[in-house]
Amino acid sequence: MDDYAPATLLDVSLFFVFLCVFLGGYYRTVLSPTGRPDGFGNSSVISNLHSVPLCALAFLSLNHIIPETVPICWSVSFFVVDLIDSIVRREAMWFVHAVISLALNLLTGSSARHRALRSVSKGFFAEASTRQVSQTLSAIVFFTTKTTTTFQPFLNHWKKSKSYSSYVVFFVVFTLCRLIWVPYFIYTTYFYHLNGELDMLIWPSLAFCLLQFAWYAKMCMIAVNYKIPKDLMEQFSKEQ
């Protein structure tokens, strides 16, 4: 396969080092005496630990200061643990999100031309709104299933203030990062840099976009009929 770019020994080493970081986070937030079942997914510390360094690494990659594989290894290590967490908690939505994210990371990172274009690093700026969004999107999940980065501080601010204005700020950031930036960079990648030539990576990319639009539809409903569910208020109070 001419487009295949194999992983190096350094890539594998970085992956396992980074994996230990997030496994340590999983132990601290879930398995330790002070942990709880939803501790990993709802931890702002873990969320910041993933998204803030990831955006910084993506910036360095786009400026050709570090290899593209460094932010990829960081992201893959997180989503491996996130996938395990979603399986243990039986969270279908986050399972789908983790699978799509891993597919995008691994498939795009193993493509020589996408690696040369730094496609993954461009996509990582979607994390500037982030799940990381899970803290804010937990409200959406309550509305739909009754289950439970700009950067993560916007999420934490909304969690603390629970105000409509802070939700609007996060809503705008999510719109810019995931509804505008992601489709834009996918379009420019395929129709400008690759001259309209599509490959198999377009499918997980479209799946990711559809997931964002599904979340966004629920976020619009919350923005119009703003009300924080009682269970979510109690959850936020415990996390203060």
TrEMBL record:
GO terms for cellular component: membrane. It is found in: Membrane. Residues 73-220 form the TLC domain. InterPro entries: TLC-dom (IPR006634). Keywords: Membrane, Transmembrane, Transmembrane helix. The chain crosses the membrane at residues 7-27, 167-188, 200-217. It is a multi-pass membrane protein. This is TLC domain-containing protein. It comes from Cyclostephanos tholiformis.
